[in-house]
Structures are given as structure tokens and as C-alpha cells.
Amino acid sequence: AKPFYCAAIDLGATSGRVILGTWAKNRLTLREVHRFPNALRSAGGHDYWDIPGLWQEVQTGLRAAVAALPKGATLASVGVDTWGVDYVLTNDAGRIVFPTHAYRDARTQAPMEHLKNTRAAYDRIYAATGIPAVFYNSSFQLAETVASCPAITDLATRCLFLPDYFNFLLSGQMANGLSIASTTQLLDVNGDDWSRPALDYFRVPPVWLTKPVRSGHKLGRLRTVLSSAKDPALQDTQVIAVPGHDTTCAYDAMPAAADGADIFLSSGTWSLVGFESNQPLLGAEALAARVANDRTGRGEYRPLVNVIGLWLLEGTLKDFASRPKNDREWAALIKAAAKIPSVAALDPASAGDNVAGATLSSRRGTQAQLRKDTLLDVTDPAFANPPSMKAAIDAQLKRRGLKAPRDLAGYVRLICDSLGRGHADVIKTFEKLSGRTFKRILMVGGGSKNTLLCQATADASGLPVHSFALEGSVVGNLANQLIALKAVKNLAAFRALHAADLKQTIYQPKV
Ligand code: LRH
After folding, report:
1. Is the distance from CB of 390 to CB of 323 less than 8 angstroms?
2. Which of these ranges, 85-99, 352-366, 369-383, has the smallest mean pLDDT?
3. Rounded to an integer, what distance in angstroms lies between the CA atom of residue 402 and that of residue 5?
4. Is 435 left (phi over 0), alpha (psi -120 to 50) or beta?
């Protein structure tokens, strides 16, 4: 059989990449043809994305993908996945009529607080959408846009979430995709269309949205928007709606067993802890635990809690001139952090008076309890977008009577241990609410290379962590294209075939 060549466009908040995937003899090989930095840009106290800049990089990447094809080969398809929640407002002709804010823009605070403080409305919105109030939700962003610029309801006729918008540029077709739609807090949790009560509550014009399409939907041929689109290699290239949400793609890439006992952890800037299910997790306890019922591209549920993630570490590093500049320096930093005993990530001399008035030696708590008390509360909203992450961490520690770590290695230790505990707390909640017993944690993303974080997660949860050297979102993106092209039967078949090629490291719990 002839190989299939597919391009995955994967846009993240801090970097983007275009990867050429080759599927031959039931094996997927990846070639990164273009990688570029991405960053929000601030002006006048607000944060925005450079959408035309990203489009330019996407085009550069697609040209590079064509250049990397073997002679005479054609590109079968292209798929786009991006970070969640952000969107482009356009008119019918596809012209951008409002700048795209970045989700960390503080503009959503007021609408979010309003919802959280209106208990009956909050319960109703959670029952309707299965999505808790998180500062970045598209719902709050759209509510703020409509409230601050009322004329927008005349100007805009369509709301395309980021993958939808890039799909439109590539194919000329406007469509909303199901997985990205489920990140908005506007989708009906009991169906696969928009929730009228949620649209009404957030005052989002229903005409801006169309019934979401599932993964595998073919949007059409790649338009001749690229100078190389006249290239014979691009004549029959299909633009395929893959799960537009990068986290969904990352979950699809993991070699989960069919027994439902796997926890998925996509660990990067965010730690996304979840599992796959045929039903949503709803109700007061799920809401209190901030369970988001995201959806797969196939329509199943992916109950998930977003833990602050390595954003804590990325932010803290900015405050240290001694931050690592290459892999060797990173390894040295992790090694130094690993040498610090866990509880003593805080200055051991002072940790005693830190723990609820008791001294460390006299305290009769379990080791786990002791750790929890000296670890960061990673759910603190102050960590969302502080001017200085180190200052935000120090402020929480001070408020709780705890001393700040002495050096960068101390912060690394504290952050990794605290995230491990954060992951474990979420898993415990999932077990309680779903009645399942989880047996393994499957981990992908930048954090899966962080041995300290993997071990801390295993120790805190008591479960083995299987960490995979895997470009999660890209592999899931390509897998969904291959399924749509009928090169692979379904996701279970892809996972089984791909598992054989995956390198994994297993971290057994030590405490
Ligand atoms: C991670 C992610 C996550 C959230 C956030 C806004 O890239 O997609 O799942 O949706 O970005």
C-alpha cells in the first residue's frame, strides 16, 4: 500500500509547529518541518494574539511540508489543533471584525465573579454545559466583548474558534468543531449542539455559531492561498476537521487500555488531568471540584480538571538570572532539586513553625499530611497571570506562615511536589465521583520529561506513571486525519498500532 502523507498544524500558546506525518506499514513517523515561537502581545492594558502572524507561520510550515515530501508524493490532508477557548469574530466574508484577545487577559474577572456569586445561575449553567467557571472560558470573554463593545452584534456574524478560523483560511469553509466548542461553556452537555440557556445568559448571539461538526468532517480542498498551492503535491489535499482542541488530540494520542482504568495527564504549561467516559460528571461535587466535561471529537466525554501546571515554573524562572539555558543546565537543575528532601523544600530550620503552629519534629501527622501542609495550594487564583510568579508564590507561603525556598532548585522542588499533590487530589476526586478505580497514569507533554514531576505524581497518587516521549497533540491530530482518510479503522486501532512504537518510562510510587 502507498504511504499517506499528512500535515499537522499544532498551535500552542508559547510555540507552534507544523509536522509532516508519514503513515506507512502501520507505522507513523514524524518530521518537524517548522517550529516557531508564539506569545501574547499587550497594548493598552489588554492581551491579544497576533493572528495574521500565526497564519504566516502556518503557510511557511505548509510550504516546508511540501518541500519535505518525497519526489512525486502528494499531501493527502492537513489538520489544525490549537489551545482552547480563544476565537475570531468575523463577518460573512470572513473578515476579522474584532481583535482576538488572549485568554489570560484579565477582562473576564468581572463576568466570572458575577456568575460565581449568583449561585442559582451558576448551578444552572453548570447543569446545562458541564463546564465550571474558569477565568479563560470563551463564555466570559464573549460576554465581556458584547458588553464593552455592543456594536459588535451588528459587525460580527460568525464566531470561529481558533482551529475553526485556521480551517476557514485553509478551506474557505466556516464550521465550528465539537471538541473546541466543548471548551467554551456554551455547548449543551447533554447533546452536541449549543446550549440556548448558556447563550442567553452570556448574551452571545446564536447566529454566530453553527452546529459543531465531529472529527473527520471534510471541509474541502486546500485553497490556493499558498503560493505553492499550485504545486501538484497540493492538488488533492483535504482540509480535515480533527479535534481542534490540542488537549483532545493529546489524549487521543495516548495508548490507553480499553478497561477505563487509565488517567490521562497532558502536562505542559497546564496540567490537564482527566479520563474518558460515556457520561459527563455533573452535580454539586463535580462543580466544587471544577470538573470540566470537555468532549472528544467523536462526542464522548473527557471529564478533566485543569491544574495550574508548569506555568508556575515557567513564571518563576523569569525571576532568576540563573535559569537554565539548555538541556544540560536543565538536567543539572532537576538533579539539584531532587537532592532537596521533599518536606525541606522549604527552609528546614523554619518549616517547624510553619506547620499549623506545631514543630516538624513534634508533629504527629503522616508524611503525606505533613507534605500537603508545606506544599503550595496550586488552586490559588493568584497564579493565573501575576506580574511576578515568584512574588505570588512567596505571598501565598507568607500568608500561610511558610518560608520561601532559598534558591531556584528549592522552588523547582516545591513546584513539582505541589503539582504532584494537585494531580493526586484530582484523581481522588474522579474516583469518588465516578466510582472507578484508576490503575495507571499516562503522561505526555513537556512535563513528562521532568523526572521530578513524574515521580512526585506517582508518589502523591500511589499510582504508576507511564510517561511517553510523544508529541501528543501532533500525533492525535495525525491519527484523526488517518482515520478520516480510512488509512486506519478507528482510534482504538490506531492506539494499539502506535503503542508498539512508543518509548515509555515507568515511575513507581515510592512512598
Ligand atoms: C492547553 C489548553 C487547555 C485549556 C487552555 C486554554 O493548551 O488547550 O486545555 O483549554 O489551553
Report:
1. no
2. 352-366
3. 54
4. left
DSSP designation for 246: H
CA of 46 to the centre of ligand 1 (A): 20
What are 40's three cell numbers?
Answer: 501574547
Residue nearest to atom 7 of ligand 1 (CA): 83
User: pLDDT (tens digit, 9 = 90+) per residue, 90-131?
Assistant: 999 999 999 999 999 999 999 999 999 999 999 999 999 999
Residue-wise pLDDT tens digits, 389-423: 999 999 999 999 999 999 999 999 999 999 999 99
Q: Which amino acid is at 286?
A: A
Handedness of CA 357, 360, 366, 367 (dihedral sign): positive
Tally Cβ neighbours within 10 Å of residue 399: 11
Please name the residues in contact with 37: beta carbons below 8 A apart, sequence gap of 6 or more.
14, 15
Q: Is 246 in the active site?
A: yes
Which pLDDT value is given to residue 356? 34
Please give the backbone phi and psi of residue 67, each rounded to the nearest 5 degrees, phi first.
-65, -25
User: What's 177's DSSP letter?
Assistant: B
Cα 295 to chain center, whole Å? 13
| Per-residue pLDDT reduced to its tens digit, 447-496 | 999 999 999 999 999 999 999 988 899 999 999 999 999 999 999 999 99
Query: Whole-angstrom Cα distance, residue 294 to residue 385?
Result: 23
Tens digit of pLDDT for each residue in 284-317? 999 999 999 999 999 999 999 999 999 999 999 9
Strands (E), 180-261: 217-221, 238-241
CA distance 179 to 59: 24
Q: The cell 538541556 sits on which residue? A: 327
Do 253 and 470 contact (CB within 8 A), yes or no?
Answer: yes
Alpha helices in 203-321, H assignment, sequence order: 246-253, 284-288, 311-317
Q: Out of 141, 272, 305, 385, give the residue to mutate to test ligand 1, the one with the largest number of ligand atoms within 8 Å of its CB.
A: 272
- Rg for the chain, CA atoms, rounded: 23
pLDDT in tens, 340-356: 987 645 444 444 443 33
Question: What angle in degrees, to the nearest 10, is found between the helix axes of 109-116 and 138-148?
Answer: 110
Helices 109-116 and 119-129, packing angle to 10 deg: 100
List 10, 246, 262, 417, catalytic entry: 246
* Global ipTM: 0.96
**Residue whose entry in the numeric block shows the C-alpha cell 449568583:** 118
pLDDT at 231 over 80: yes
Pocket of ligand 1 (CB under 6 A): 12, 83-85, 103, 136, 183, 245-247, 270, 272
With CA atoms as reference, report the closest residue to 161 among 213, 202, 126, 198: 213
